[in-house]
């Protein structure tokens, strides 16, 4: 009958169909069977063939006894066996072995945690790996002197194993805990070694931020990972979460440290007037797919700024997996974007 959203799309088969893993269909039910055709190395053109579906019950229903005629056996076999004509068109192009897009998802367990976990993401073409500084790099948390300078050198060594594991396969996305939703609240202040606090985005705060980011850049370079291989985000969904001021402030400070550091913004952006101050930053924009063909989208395209596609929804089980998930990568490719970002976090016990 289709999905709640009115479409008639269904998910691919999770378990391969084989002689040892048959598809079971209860009486009165129906099942979709998907066939995957490997066309690598096949010349372009039209091809046809037949697929025969034979229920395992044929052998049981067609058991011969002294009172069973040959015609009756043949009729049962003909009734149970289905032959389906398949017509396939192979198009005259091949998809690249390497994904031409940056592909990322917010994987809070760290997709580079171990070889097996990383291999699963690589198999599904992910090539930008998520790391949270507040979880995966606790030793690097900021400690400031009253004048805003770093009280001690941050230690990023907790990241080294994960970074070296993922380095051959793609880039890295670092989510920091510098951001604050409301810069006027005391929770936006950094505590100093003498017990005092430094206001968020103040001049002294900026000193600490830039020194910390400079140390982080040097650490990444020591592993052979340049600024073209990583992104930093200080505010998640800044426009949507009313953190525009804080995010823009951090973006400008990041640019001052090194204009090649890629600052990441996933959001539902406002109009072009709100985006113009970002011209003095090196921001990779990741607007939600719902803003495409709106004014802000056209402004970003005109600026020739690196742009990804973002989408995030709650309660997605009822949505078409093709339109909502699998189709997004194709849309990003068709729009000639640089990447696609899925808000689809999964822990190691989940999918």
Write a compact overview of the structure shown.
The chain has ten helices and twelve strands. The chain is of the alpha/beta class and 351 residues long. The strands form four sheets. It has a five-stranded parallel sheet. The protein has a three-stranded parallel sheet with strand order 3-12-11, covered by helices on one side. Strands 1-2 form a two-stranded antiparallel sheet.
Describe this structure in words.
With 351 residues, this protein is of the alpha/beta class. The protein has 10 helices and 12 strands. The protein has a 5-stranded parallel beta sheet. Helix 6 (203-222) packs across helix 7. The chain starts with 44 loop residues before the first strand and ends in a 9-residue tail after the last strand. The relative contact order is 0.10. Mean pLDDT is 81; it is low at 180-187 and 347-351.
Q: Keyphrases for this structure?
A:
single chain; 351 residues; alpha/beta; five-stranded parallel sheet; three-stranded parallel sheet; 10 helices; 12 strands; elongated; disordered C terminus
| Structural class by sheet pairing and helices | alpha/beta
Shape: elongated
Q: Which ranges are low-confidence, i.e. pLDDT below 50, for 5 or more consecutive residues?
A: 180-187, 347-351
Whole-number radius of gyration?
A: 27 Å
Distance between the termini: 26 Å
Show the helix and strand layout:
Blueprint lengths: L44 E9 L3 H5 L8 H11 L1 E9 L11 E4 L9 H9 L4 E5 H4 L23 H7 L4 E5 L14 E2 L5 E2 L4 H20 L7 E4 L10 H14 L4 E6 L4 H4 L7 E5 L7 H8 L5 E4 L9 H14 L4 E4 L9
Parallel strand pairs: 3-12, 4-5, 5-8, 8-9, 9-10, 11-12
Antiparallel strand pairs: 1-2, 6-7
Helix pairs in contact: 6-7
């Amino acid at each position: 009958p289709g999905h709640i959203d009115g479409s008639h799309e269904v998910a691919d088969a999770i378990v391969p169909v084989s002689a040892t893993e048959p598809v079971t269909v209860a009486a009165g039910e129906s099942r979709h069977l998907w066939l995957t055709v490997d066309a690598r190395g096949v010349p372009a053109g039209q091809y046809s063939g037949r697929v025969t579906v034979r229920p395992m019950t044929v052998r049981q229903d067609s058991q011969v006894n002294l009172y069973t005629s040959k015609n009756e056996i043949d009729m049962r076999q003909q009734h149970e066996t289905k032959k389906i004509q398949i017509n396939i068109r192979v198009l005259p192009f091949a998809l690249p072995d390497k994904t031409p897009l940056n592909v990322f998802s917010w994987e809070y367990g760290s997709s580079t945690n171990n070889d097996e976990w990383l291999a699963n993401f690589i198999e599904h073409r992910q090539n930008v790996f998520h790391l949270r500084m507040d979880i995966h790099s606790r030793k690097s948390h900021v400690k400031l002197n009253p004048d805003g300078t770093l009280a001690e050198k941050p230690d990023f060594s907790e990241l080294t194993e994960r970074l070296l594991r993922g380095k051959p396969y793609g880039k890295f996305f670092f989510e920091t805990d510098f951001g604050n939703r409301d810069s006027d609240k005391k929770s936006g202040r950094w505590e100093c070694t003498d017990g005092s606090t430094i206001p968020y985005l103040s001049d002294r705060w900026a000193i600490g931020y830039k020194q910390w980011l400079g140390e982080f850049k040097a650490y990444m370079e020591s592993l052979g990972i340049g600024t073209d291989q990583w992104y930093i985000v200080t505010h998640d969904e800044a426009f949507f979460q009313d953190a525009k001021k804080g995010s823009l402030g951090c973006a400008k400070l990041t640019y001052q440290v090194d204009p090649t550091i890629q600052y990441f913004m996933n959001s539902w952006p406002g109009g072009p007037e709100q985006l113009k101050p970002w011209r003095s930053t090196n921001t990779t924009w990741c607007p939600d797919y719902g803003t495409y063909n709106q004014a802000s989208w056209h402004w970003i395209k005109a600026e020739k700024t690196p742009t990804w596609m973002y989408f995030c929804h709650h309660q997605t089980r009822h949505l078409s997996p093709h339109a909502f998930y699998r189709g997004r990568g194709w849309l990003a490719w068709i729009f000639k974007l640089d990447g696609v970002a899925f808000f689809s976090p999964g822990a190691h016990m989940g999918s």
